[in-house]
Write a structure and sequence with these properties.
Blueprint: H1 2-17, E1 22-31, E2 38-50, E3 53-66, E4 70-86, E5 89-104, E6 108-111, E7 117-120, E8 125-137, E9 146-160, E10 163-179
Antiparallel strand pairs: 1-2, 1-10, 2-3, 3-4, 4-5, 5-8, 6-7, 8-9, 9-10
Length: 185
């Protein structure tokens, strides 16, 4: 599993950033506070430099665990506005959209037609995902090219039992800018 996840991340970075002069990468913890832990990796490229910052586009993949309920995987694309660092911190705002897939944590049962129950295959449930998150970078605490980042996100999965399931998530991780080229970073 770890080997296949590493392969997916490497292929994502190579395919998405091919030809880009500068690549933004981010990795870290993501979860609904600390009760639904998970992790994610994202890769972005600058699209245009505007007054006050850079507009970037990217991909984010990750997974999380909702103990005793389900596990989830997500693949999201995003548009991001990145303000350059000013003294002690920088700011970014992301609009996300993409795909969630969840698998119940346990066997699934259906009616067998005779009033009993029978176990059915657990192929999981697909969902559309939308979200908005804000991130704060702290370059004064950097370790080489990696800068600590904190993100707060409002995410939603639809349909989840017929409704939009909201999530309030916290992200803690590191971001880095690699390559050359002129951007607001």
């Amino acid at each position: 599993m770890k080997k296949s996840l590493c392969t997916v991340v490497i292929l994502m970075v190579l395919s998405f950033s091919a030809g880009a002069e500068k690549v933004f990468m981010e990795t870290g913890y993501i979860g609904e506070t600390f009760t639904h832990p998970g992790g994610s990796v994202s890769v972005g490229i600058p699209v245009v430099t505007v007054k006050g910052g850079t507009v970037a586009a990217g991909l984010q993949i990750g997974a999380y665990i909702h103990p005793r309920n389900h596990v989830g995987f997500f693949a999201l694309s995003y548009g991001e506005f990145i303000r350059p660092e000013r003294r002690s911190f920088g700011f970014s705002l992301r609009l996300l959209g993409g795909y969630y897939h969840t698998w119940p944590d346990g066997p699934l049962y259906t009616n067998d037609g005779t009033g009993g129950a029978m176990e059915t295959p657990n192929t999981g449930r697909p969902h559309l995902g939308i979200g908005l998150d804000a991130g704060w970078r702290f370059p004064g605490l950097s370790a080489g090219p990696f800068i600590p980042i904190i993100r707060i996100a409002v995410l939603g999965e639809y349909p989840y039992n017929g409704y939009l399931l909201p999530h309030l998530a916290v992200g803690l991780g590191f971001t880095g800018t690699f390559g050359h080229g002129k951007t607001a970073e």
